[in-house]
Amino acid sequence: MLRYALIFFIVAIIAGVLGFGGIAGGLASIAQILFYIFVVLLVVSLISSLLKKA
Q1: Is the separation of the CB atoms in 12 and 28 below 8 Å?
Q2: What is the CB neighbour count within 10 angstroms for residue 10?
Q3: What pLDDT score does 54 carry?
Q4: pLDDT in tens, 1-54
Q5: Domain coverage including residue 10
Q6: What's the rounded Cα separation, in Å, for the pair 34 and 6?
Q7: What is the dihedral of CA 26, 27, 29, 31, to 10 degrees?
Q8: What's the pLDDT score for residue 44?
Q9: Structural domains of the chain, count
Q10: Residue 29 and residue 8: Cα distance in Å, rounded?
Q11: What is the pLDDT of residue 35?
């Protein structure tokens, strides 16, 4: 999932450089949402692994 966030981020940067502001903003927001989902899943995974060891 982090891979998709990076892909959307790179495409957003390219679109921003080429002057496609609306597309760049949309792709950047998708990348941001995917990144936050990844962070939440990481935290849940870490908490789950800590509880299993206890």
Answers
A1: yes
A2: 12
A3: 66
A4: 668 777 878 888 888 787 777 777 888 888 888 889 888 988 998 899 899 886
A5: 2-53
A6: 9
A7: 170
A8: 92
A9: 1
A10: 9
A11: 85
CA angle, 30 then 33 then 16, to 5°: 35
Contact 5, 31 (CB under 8 A): yes
Distance between CA 47 and CA 27 in Å, rounded? 30
Tokens 């792709």 locate to 27
DSSP the chain: -HHHHHHHHHHHHHHHHHT-HHHHHHHHHHHHHHHHHHHHHHHHHHHHHHHHH-
Cα separation, 19 vs 32, whole angstroms: 20
